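Supplementary Note 3. Input sequence used for the single-chain structure prediction.
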Amino acid sequence: MFTEKVRSEGEITRKKVRLVAKGYTEVWGEDYWHTYSLTLGCDTLFSCLMYVASRDLEIHQLDAVAAYLNSDLTEEIYLSPPEGVPSTPGMVWHLRKALYSLKQAGLEWYRTLHTHIQSMGYAQSGHDPCLYMLDSENFIVIYVDDLLLFAPKSRLAQVKADIARKYEMHDLGKAHWFLMMEITHDRVAWTISIDQHQYIRKILGHFRLDKV
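The predicted structure, written as discrete structure tokens, is reproduced below.
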């Protein structure tokens, strides 16, 4: 599968290719049991942004590289080699890690990342399971393979190093683009604003309304 990574103004920042599994052939009770993966609530994200603006903390973003491939599988899964890959007739692959398109892949990645963040001393929020807190000035929110780090400037490098110690991460620096929202942090005015201009333009273009 071929895909592209897009930033706030619609520019393509990275082209990606993935080997994906035919998850639609999985049988419940044999190949998987649970699929639900917890996701970040908008109220949590907005509350964190408001809090950070009032405390003048930093907001940086990390993107996990090939996130699902870091996840251990609970079930025993076999995969036929894709066309074009040299292999012995009748041979299949025994998966040791999750692949994209497996029904349980998202859940297994969440469990993997959850364990690692807790090992760093962060506690999971009782309000939102995708919010992790170390103290009143150090916390992390996750949305699948995207992480927002909230911390004083003096702590950021250490937090990034702790996370990247186990999993490869793209360091995107200050958060500007998250969940189809552009984030603007005005340190002088102590405000954070969000908008979806690029997303709106994309939707208008899709329905051919951008020239109306």
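The chain has one domain: 2-28+42-206. The chain has a mean pLDDT of 90.
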